[in-house]
Amino acid sequence: MGDNEIPWMRRALELAAHGRGHVEPNPLVGAVIVRDGVVVGEGWHQRFGEAHAEIHALTQAGAAARGATLFVTLEPCCHQGKTPPCTDAIVAAGIARVVAAMRDPYPQVAGVGAERLRAAGIPVDLGSCETEARRLNAPYLKLIHTGLPFVHAKWAMTLDGKIASRAGDSKWISNESSRRRTHQLRGRMDAVIVGIGTALADDPLLTARPAGPRTPCRVLFDSQARLPLTSKLATTARQTPMLIVAAEQAPAERIAGLRATGCEVLALPGRPDVLGLLRELGRRRFTNVLLEGGSALLGSFLDAAAIDAVHAFIALKLLGGNHAMSPIAGHGIERIADALPFAHWQVHDLDGDAYIAGEREPHW
């Protein structure tokens, strides 16, 4: 593919991002159809279970698709799922060439889609802007390759790295714009996870306000099932999913009481662990999950090397204090050389707060 064609693929990637939060556990996919140097059709996968990006682009292009080139961010599907195979529609529309950013690792596609098109006489080029495409779909790729969701860690702290004062006061470290961005993050997640310490200290609701494209399941690490039955999490469990991760040896009457409020209680053998929870969430096809604290929970995920992305909101204030908490506790890492590296950073000014977001390179 020539350099002059790269902008078409970058446009397809831009379109694909519009599906974030709407299509999971499906991948984000965008498509652009170009004929004689002119875009004649565009589309993206807009909602899980509905038409794929290629179908939207072909519909927009109509008869102009015949003899055109299709740029798509992922190898077209070739199997009957919730929608018919995109390869059949591409062939029927008379597309002359397909350029795909990357091969789809989904077992029922995985190279077969490209071969179906080639067998129909349509050349297929793979690998254009592949690095960008893989980064865009990192949560999908992790779920496919490992069966585990993509873990986002979020916290708000002062400039000197404190998430609460020495007296435990934390409301509000971040400003209204940062809190609004947090709600937007929640609204595209499959789950929001906190520890029992945070639940007892803050009595949070953990919903997205206003609602986003997804309604995340609230997940609580609570080994002894201590969540009060009068808490916001328990009293809203029949309206918004609530999963409590407890130990099998937690008091039976506490587990029964929480179940009676509508909470789902997952009793794991021994002390609930990070990988045990992530395996269960992956089994449920959760793609993105958000850790919201506290520091012990974040520390346990860091110790398990289970954090994939970071969203840090930094208020330009100083608190100090030997006993003021930092965002991440746990055992920690002994050597700077072994610290968990993150890349692809973005920094935003949110009305005076600094919002820093970054991801690890794929490690699965």
Structural class: alpha/beta
Question: Can you count the beta strands?
Answer: 14
Shape type: elongated
**Mean pLDDT, all residues:** 94
Q: Regions with pLDDT < 50 over 5+ consecutive residues?
A: none
Number of helices: 12
What is the first-to-last residue Cα distance?
A: 29 Å
DSSP helix fraction: 25-40%
Largest sheet: 9 strands, mixed
**What Rg is obtained from the alpha carbons, in whole angstroms?**
23 Å
Which strand-content bin applies to the residues?
15-25%
Trace the largest sheet across and list its strands. Answer: 10-9-8-7-11-6-12-14-13
**H/E series:** HEEHEHEHEHHEHEHEHEHEHEHEEE
How does the SSE layout of this entry go?
Layout: H1 6-16, E1 30-35, E2 38-44, H2 53-61, E3 69-72, H3 86-93, E4 97-100, H4 112-119, E5 124-126, H5 130-136, H6 138-146, E6 150-158, H7 176-186, E7 191-195, H8 196-202, E8 217-221, H9 232-235, E9 242-247, H10 252-260, E10 264-268, H11 274-283, E11 288-291, H12 295-303, E12 309-315, E13 343-350, E14 353-359
Parallel strand pairs: 3-4, 4-5, 6-11, 6-12, 7-8, 7-11, 8-9, 9-10
Antiparallel strand pairs: 1-2, 1-3, 12-14, 13-14
